[in-house]
Design a protein that fits this description.
This protein has about 130 residues and is an alpha+beta fold. The chain has helices spanning about 20-40, 125-130, and strands spanning about 1-10, 45-50, 55, 65-75, 80-90, 95-105. One of its GO terms (molecular function) is long-chain fatty acyl-CoA hydrolase activity.
């Protein structure tokens, strides 16, 4: 799993227990899944369809640095299924896992559109292949 994004837990991210608010971390996960999918599918019109069970395993406190990891589980015809782990950057302790996040590729009409992708592509590889043309 690749960890792409880091977040610094600030006072506005805390709940009444002075630990990371679950809703805040879920918003970060949703945003990271969307960004990852947009880059993979090369389409800005991507939406979250489904999130499976969310497993809160530990917490973070103000000042902690967390990182969000995403990996592809499978490519569908118009969808991308991801899994996610959020962990403490310094201790590597897992904070949250989500086994399945389904993101759907949309066309201009707002309906699911086939994306034609079969495997993970890295931007650096796309750039290298376009330079060779």
């Amino acid at each position: 799993m690749r960890f792409h994004t880091r977040k610094w837990v600030k006072p506005e991210d805390l709940n009444a227990n002075e630990t990371l608010f679950g809703g805040r971390v879920l918003a970060w996960i949703d945003e990271e899944a969307a960004l990852y999918s947009i880059i993979q599918l090369e389409n800005k019109k991507v939406v979250t369809k489904y999130m499976s069970e969310i497993n809160f395993m530990s917490t973070a406190k103000q000042g902690d640095i967390i990182e969000i990891g995403i990996e592809v589980v499978k490519f569908g015809v118009s969808s991308l299924t991801l899994n996610c782990e959020v962990r403490n950057k310094m201790t590597r302790e897992t904070i949250v896992t989500v086994d399945n996040i389904i993101m759907v590729n949309l066309g201009d009409d707002g309906k699911p559109k086939p994306h034609g992708k079969k495997k993970v592509e890295y931007v650096r590889d796309r750039l290298a292949s376009s330079e060779g043309n």
